[in-house]
């Protein structure tokens, strides 16, 4: 189990670009695979999660070529996927398994999906139940609620589904199934989760209607291959935003970051805490808003976080916890129960790890209270096999009174293989 020791830093300065957006990279392979023609993808994230998606589609007969710069996917059309000869291993990737289960529900063949020890503990009923209502036959462990899942697809009918949680994975899974269903499939959610699927479906020519809290997809419409340029991942940029905000004498320019409003909750939250973050040169790339982010050291204050901003910042809470740990006063997080079913239980993992470095965190069922301090101690913390826990505790080390050792850091490769070299580049001793 490998570990890293991070030293406190004097500043975080320079100009960086973060790797491509994970959510958009997954979707580019999936839609490219079932479109007609050759889709090109630039800026693709070659993290382990996205490679799981790529391997799964190759296993279904899709020709995907990577020359190191551009990914070329020769689409097989809506009905051209082949029955995979073996189990599809989704690794650690919740997006791969949940989205692909929707897509496989529409196929007239048999398939089995599984993942690593963490993914096999994550809830799948949230997609299995509505997909079964559409007509898919899905069996799995624990009454069909845990992977491995065995899917016999085909013969779907559109449904009108109100999801009890705001989740882009549930929404996208049903949208992909909806492409194969008779009639229309509508998904609504309590408040908007990331809308990359809606944008990319439209970009590839799907028939869909979007309204304030839902989307309707019409089945049977063929997609057309496109050229996709993937922007930098705001979830990866978030670690560097927090690093520059909390470290004195810092000024960092993060180029080419996706700033889709359904993802910018982290910017809104950090600004409300007093963070100096500017969006520069806002532009549109392949149907997604993009900007450069300029961030400077700031005095942060604790705030209350709840409601519709939570799904807009869902992956950034580990990083936000580090900002809160350095803020003046208490930061409260509520309506964030979903954090308990991510790669690990992120409420408990952050409470335990921050506790180890001297920060008081009180957990509640759907969130936590973090009491900020200007004394964050050195020590040893563990990632719990979760990439975002590993990266956020590494950022905390920059302002600690002594070095912090983070154990089990291999998981960082799932989303951000170049994180540590990039941190090393901008953090001055
Ligand atoms: C994702 C959706 C989110 C997010 C995950 C990526 C996606 O999950 O946490 O990292 O690409 O659709 P939920 O839909 O479960 O909130």
Secondary-structure arrangement, i.e. CATH architecture of the largest domain = Alpha-beta prism
Stated plainly, the CATH topology of the largest domain is called UDP-n-acetylglucosamine1-carboxyvinyl-transferase, Chain
Oligomeric organization of the protein chains: single chain
Low-confidence stretches: none
Q: How much of the residues is beta strand, in percent?
A: 25-35%
Bound molecules: shikimate-3-phosphate
Terminus-to-terminus distance: 26 Å
* Net shape: globular
Q: What structural category arises from helix and sheet content?
A: alpha/beta
- Class of the largest domain in CATH? Alpha Beta
* Major sheet description: 5 strands, mixed
CATH superfamily of the largest domain: Enolpyruvate transferase domain
Summarize it.
By secondary structure, the protein is an alpha/beta fold.
Structure notes:
The protein has helices at 22-34, 48-58, 94-105, 125-134, 141-144, 168-178, 196-203, 234-246, 265-272, 317-326, 346-356, 387-397, 419-426, and strands at residues 3-6, 11-17, 35-42, 63-66, 70-76, 88-89, 110-114, 137-140, 146-152, 160-162, 184-188, 208-211, 214-218, 223-224, 227-229, 251-258, 276-285, 288-296, 304-305, 330-333, 360-364, 367-371, 379-382, 404-407, 427-428. Strand 21 and strand 22 form a beta hairpin. The chain is of the alpha/beta class. The relative contact order is 0.15. The strands form 6 sheets. The protein has a 5-stranded mixed beta sheet. Strands 3, 4, 5, 14 and 15 form a 5-stranded mixed beta sheet that branches. Helix 1 packs parallel to helix 2 (48-58) and helix 3 runs parallel beside helix 6. The protein contains 13 helices and 25 strands. The chain folds into 2 domains: 3-20 and 231-428, Enolpyruvate transferase domain (UDP-n-acetylglucosamine1-carboxyvinyl-transferase, Chain, Alpha-beta prism), CATH 3.65.10; 22-229, Enolpyruvate transferase domain (UDP-n-acetylglucosamine1-carboxyvinyl-transferase, Chain, Alpha-beta prism). The radius of gyration is 21 Å and the shape is globular. Bound molecules: shikimate-3-phosphate (S3P). Residues 23, 95, 167-169, 172, 193-194, 314-315, 338 line the site of shikimate-3-phosphate.
